[in-house]
Amino acid sequence: MIGSEAKAMRLELDDYRDSATKGTVDFLYRLSDLVKGRSFLQVNAVRYGGGMAEVLRRLVPMLTSLGVDARWEVLAGDQEFFDVSKRISNALQGQEQVFTEQMSQVYLKINRQNAQVLNLDADLVMVHDPGPAALIEHRKGGKWIWRCYLDLSQPQRRAWSFLRHFVVRYDAAIFSVTGFAQRLPIPKFLIYPSIDPLSEKNRELSRAEVSQTLDCLGIPRDKPILLQVARFDRFKDPVGAVATYKMVKKHYDCRLILAGGGVANDPEGEAVLADVQTAAGSDADIHVLQLPPEADREINALQRGATIVLQKSIKEGFGLAVSEAMWKGKPVVGGTAGGIADQIIDGVTGYIVHSIEGAAFRVRHLLKNPGLSQRMGGAAREHVRRNFLITRHLADYLTLLKIYTQ
Fold first, then answer.
1. pTM of the predicted protein model
2. What is the CATH number of domain 207-387?
3. Does the structure show a pLDDT above 80 at 12?
4. 162: which residues sit within 8 A by CB, 6+ positions away?
5. Are 298 and 217 in contact (CB under 8 A)?
6. Is the Cβ–Cβ distance between 11 and 380 less than 8 Å?
7. Are 163 and 136 in contact (CB under 8 A)?
8. What is the reported pLDDT for 78?
9. pLDDT single digits (tens) 261-273
10. Rg (CA), the chain
11. Residue 32: beta bridge partners?
12. Mean pLDDT (the chain, rounded)
């Protein structure tokens, strides 16, 4: 990390005093004194797209600013590799997939090629998700931790058997939700993902900035806005969000915005987008926005401009869009998948629902009671402050570095 960027992040760490709970920043400075000079490498498969990459983009320079020798390496692969990785991820989350010997060889080849060019030498190496998991075969020293964001509670047996062969060789594994984990002969940790309140996606915006951005996106503000921010993926159930809106629309004149895109190299994104457009039909109050990976300001403005936020995922890793929306003071109506229920306090910061009908009922209730919606939004922001900000995430990683590099 270049010196100027590290310096900027050092200044920002004190800026978190206004966002984090009292004493958090001082605690981080004290904790970092215990691990200064130690090397910490993060490895994943994508530079852009998804909450994991967003967090790494901020955590790595923050670690550097605190005196840790922090680096971030990204796996280089071709489209065939990313297609295989997507199949593996879907299979691990319980979706039936064809997984052949040829696919496993493609996966191993790319990991082997990357091991020859990446600098994997560090006191602590954290490898994120299935894509680069096989790099463990090429470890050169230090301690290695596998960080998994996927729901492994009911994986396709063949895919998990293949990946487990590598996972058990790590020194520990980290999961985002207790129920995601499989039995493993290595230590397991629970660490929630986080959002950065100072990032472009989450920083404060004026009403004028919100209005200007929504105008640029072609979104009128003449009626309540229901919003779901999620990539166009079947697990995110954008078609279910459309069905929820149509039920609400019978009682309240409102708009639905589905804002997303595809994580880079996702071969299924276009097909899901086509299904969403078919479900939306000619309804002028349904806005389907295909946003580029760098559309952080647009997402920020959409979440601030929304009346109620939906997260209708049927399979989910953690779903940071929930915390993002709650940080902006919005009640969230979300499903039970993945980490969504870990973020929402049912009846306090939003509602947890089990069906399209349930989602529509809760949305109608909030639209009918704007005072309740406002109170829930305030409680939601405080809940995120205490549990899901990047300052807490940074403390977790510094603690791991201390534990594993004694």
1. 0.84
2. 3.40.50.2000
3. no
4. 88, 99, 104
5. yes
6. no
7. no
8. 87
9. 754 456 677 788 8
10. 21
11. none
12. 90
Domain 3-194+389-404 belongs in CATH node 3.40.50.2000: yes
A 10 A CB-CB count for 268 gives 17
Q: What is the DSSP string of 10-48?
A: HHHHHHGGGTSPTTHHHHHHHHHTTTTT-EEEEEES-SS
Kindly indicate the confidence band of residue 209, based on its pLDDT and cuts at 50, 70 and 90.
Answer: very high
Angle subtended by helix axes 269-280 and 238-249, to nearest 10: 10
Identify the band that residue 318 occupies on the pLDDT scale cut at 50, 70 and 90.
confident
Amino acid present at 366: L
Q: How far is Cα 335 from Cα 319, in angstroms, rounded to an integer?
A: 11
Q: Report the C-alpha gap between 130 and 147 in whole angstroms.
A: 9
Joined together, the tokens standing for residue 109 give: 């080849």
Range list of β-strands (E), 185-340: 188-190, 225-229, 255-260, 286-290, 308-311, 332-334
Helix (H, G, I), strand (E, B) or coil at 63: helix
- pLDDT digits 0-9 by tens, 78-113: 889 988 988 998 899 888 888 888 999 999 999 999
Domain map of the chain by residue range? Answer: 3-194+389-404, 207-387
Q: How far is CA 27 from CA 150, 169, 273, 403, in A?
A: 30, 33, 45, 17
Q: What pLDDT is recorded for position 390?
A: 93
Indicate if 207-387 has the same CATH topology as 3-194+389-404. yes
User: Rounded to whole angstroms, how far apart are CA atoms 263 and 379?
Assistant: 31
Cα dihedral 397, 26, 51, 238, rounded to 10, equals: 130
- The structure tokens listed for 292 are 């580029």
Burial-class residue 246 by CB neighbours within 10 Å (0-12, 13-18, 19+): middle
